[in-house]
Structure formats: structure tokens, C-alpha cells
Amino acid sequence: MGLESKGKPRVTVWFDGDCPLCRAEIALYQKLDQKAGRVAFVDLTGDGTCPIDRADMLARFHAQEAGGPLISGARAFAAMWKHLTPFQPLGYLAQLPLILPFLDWLYGQFLKVRPRLQSRMVAREKRQG
User: Fold this and answer.
1) pLDDT (tens digit per residue) in 27-76
2) Using N-to-C axis directions, what is the helix angle for 100-128 and 20-33, rounded to 10°?
3) Euclidean distance between CA atoms 54 and 64, whole angstroms
4) 15 touches 41 (CB < 8 A)
5) Phi, psi of 64, deg, nearest 5
6) pLDDT tens per residue across span 2-12
7) Taking Cα atoms as reference points, which of 2, 9, 79 lies closest to residue 37?
């Protein structure tokens, strides 16, 4: 299945623009999607709309495919990856019933260490000026 050129975004993702780790990851995805425009990126620290409580949105990665429900965690990453050419196979693979629960568990483990990683990245950014 090929991915067509720029048009209306097929998936919207919300991210924490105050999180240096999140910004770095989203910057990669934005670069990959720059020409195609299949993903709409909404920074929750700006004036972007929140379909649910902002604190809940900031606690986990959220996405919504066109016409679909709001999803979070590994399912949200898989939905986004399906629309990014180099990640497309991973996006479909990640949605498989035996794989998705494992990836969601891994994401939960990452969320436990995310505050420490963020602190380190903020400290590094301050040192670099």
C-alpha cells in the first residue's frame, strides 16, 4: 500500500511541547511527514484544541485517525506510524493483537522513567545555552 502525496491529514497527534524528549521525537516525525502532510501535529502547550482534559492529554501520547476515536499509548503511535513512510510496516505490525499489548506495556514502563529523562534533557539544554 503506497502513501499518497500531501492532502488532508489522516491522523492528528497531540504532544507535550514543553518536554524536550517529546519535541525531539516529534521533530523527527515532522521531518518525515514534511512533504506528505498526512499527520497533523498539535502542541498541547500552545493554543491547540484538546478533545479531553489537558492534563490527561499530557500524561500519555494521543492520536486520532480521521473519523476514528481518540486513542492513546502504543495504539496511538501505531496509528501515526502507519502514515509515515519509513514507519508504515511497523505501524501495521504494532497493531497486531499479540504485539500491541506488549508495546503498550513497554510504553507504560517508559512513562515511569520519562520524568527523569526529561530532567536530564532540560539540564543538558540549560548547559548548552
Assistant:
1) 999 999 999 999 999 999 877 678 899 899 999 999 999 999 999 999 99
2) 110
3) 15
4) yes
5) -150, 120
6) 445 467 889 99
7) 9
Task: List CB contacts of 78: < 8 A, sequence separation 6 or more.
Answer: 90, 91, 92, 94, 95, 100, 103
Question: Which run of H or of E encompasses 72?
Answer: strand 70-72
Of the candidates 12, 13, 11, 16, the residue with the CA atom closest to the CA atom of residue 111 = 16
107/67 Cα distance (integer angstroms): 25
DSSP state of 87: G
Total number of residues shown for the chain = 129
Q: b vs e for 2-13, b when ≥16 Cβ sit within 10 Å of the residue's Cβ? A: eeeeeeebbbbb
